[in-house]
Amino acid sequence: MITAVGLCPWPPVLVRELTGTDPVLPELRHACAKLVDALISTAPEVIFVVGPGPGTRTWAADSHLDLSLFAPLRRTSASSLPTPLGIGSYLLDQAQYEGRRVLQAVSTLASVGTCAGLGHRLATASDRIALLAMGDGSARRSLKAPGYLDTRARPFDATVIEALESADFRALERVSADLARDLMASGRIAWQTIAGALRSVPATVEVLYKDDPFGVLYFAGLYRPAGAVGPEA
Amino acid sequence: MNETPAPAGPRRVREPGVLRLGSRSFAVTDFAVMAIVNRTPDSFYAPGKTWDHTAALEYVDEAIAAGAHIVDIGGVPAHPGDEVAAAEEIRRTAPFIAAVRSAHPDLVISIDTWRHEVGREACAAGADLVNDSWGGWDKELVTAAAEFGAGYVCTHVGNQPPRTRPFRVTYQDVVAEVLTWTLSLAQRALDAGVEPARILIDPAHDFGKNTWHSLEITRRLDEMVATGWPVLVSVSDKDFIGETLDSADPEERLTGTLAAMSICAWQGARVFRVHSIPEAVETLKTVAAVRGDISPERVVRGEA
Question: Is the predicted ipTM greater than 0.85, yes or no?
Answer without folding.
Answer: yes
